[in-house]
Amino acid sequence: MPVYLKHSQLLCGSAVADMRHAPKNCINVGIINNMPDGALKSTERQFLNLLNTAAGALALRVTFYGLPEVLRSDSGRRHMDGFYCNIQDLWDHPLDGLIVTGAEPRTPNLPDERYWTKLTELVEWAEQNTHSSLWSCLAAHAAVLHLDGIQRHRLRHKRFGLFSCSQASEHRLLDGVSARLIMPHSRWNELSEADLNKCGYQVLTRSEQAGVDAFVKQRKSPLVFFQGHPEYDANTLLLEYRRDIGRYLRGEVEAYPVMPRSYFDSQTEVAFTALRERALSDRREGLLEDFSPALLENKLQNTWRSAALGIYQNWLAFLADRKQQRVITRRPQQQAAPAELVHRRTFAAGAD
């Protein structure tokens, strides 16, 4: 079901192919939500909130899609049946922009995942049917593997927490964004900057501790990649950490999870450290009862929100420019836009 976002208001949409009620010059963005069932609704909320704020005065239409190959519980399938469009509806309906989320891996090798073939089809489809696409975390790893054979590397420990990043190059996506920014990361794998550079990718932001953060590849439809998660809410890392502790206490994993870096205040870190010591000697799920997320959330701040908004504002502005250029090129030659405007509105590295 599409959702319209305009002037910070959410308006219900109609069927995927029905644009009769869409505002004039509406920007159409599709989101392929591959997150596990427990994160479906929170991921929807995170992206809608971020896009809604970043859109400003732009009219924005957002449609969610799901890959049937991603394993779902009965409740997950019911939710998607009620609020998501069938992926088959996407193929014949070009979008201005596409966002593809990560997924919880089931196999060590990405090509062995059930959804691998469909995900690679999305990469090729986006090239011909969008002005630009965003690929998050595992989806970013899958896209670069498919496009250029770049393999991700398994980390010894989960890359988890808040990491200070700096701009590595000039790009329109970073216009107005601070030269140093904070970004959440939550992943078990990483991509080598040397491998990306060798294959023509441009690294936008990097961290001394976390490596490559955001990067792009200039193609017919530019691809934007995030190893971090600018869309995260302030409490997302807390909920992930609590989930991982629960998995350990239930015996689903053998190793106790690492605490998110630079995220909690000192008092909370002491409390979670004490919990770890108790869990290692008395492994039972009831230990988590004293760590209600609601009791900790008022201590958390979204220190990456400004950078996330800046990046998404620049991306949406690019989509709007590309959409307008397409309209202009369909007009008679005497109505074409000035060359200066067309040149200024490119998405290539170093534009503007």
Mean pLDDT, nearest integer? Answer: 88
CATH class bucket of the largest domain: Alpha Beta
Unreliable residue runs: 6-20, 333-352
User: What is the strand tally?
Assistant: 12
Rg, Å, rounded: 21 Å
Into which percent range does the helicity of residues fall? 25-40%
Q: What is the number of domains?
A: 2
What order do the SSEs take from the amino end to the carboxyl end, as H and E?
Answer: EEEHEHEEHEHEEHEEEHHHHH
CATH level 4 superfamily of the largest domain: Class I glutamine amidotransferase (GATase) domain
| Helix run count | 10
CATH topology of the largest domain: Rossmann fold
Distance between the termini: 36 Å
Helix-and-strand structural type: alpha/beta
Strand content: 15-25%
Largest sheet: 12 strands, mixed
Using the 3D structure, state the CATH architecture of the largest domain.
3-Layer(aba) Sandwich
Overall description:
This protein is an alpha/beta fold. It folds into two domains: 3-233 and 308-344, Class I glutamine amidotransferase (GATase) domain (Rossmann fold); 240-299, no CATH class. 35% of the residues lie in helices and 21% in strands. The chain is built from ten helices and twelve strands. Strands 1, 2, 3, 4, 5, 6, 7, 8, 9, 10, 11 and 12 form a twelve-stranded mixed sheet that branches. Helix 3 (116-129) links the parallel strand 6 (97-100) and strand 7. Helix 1 packs across helix 9 and helix 3 (116-129) packs across helix 4 (138-148). It is globular. The two termini are 36 Å apart. Residues 6-20 and 333-352 have low confidence and may be disordered.
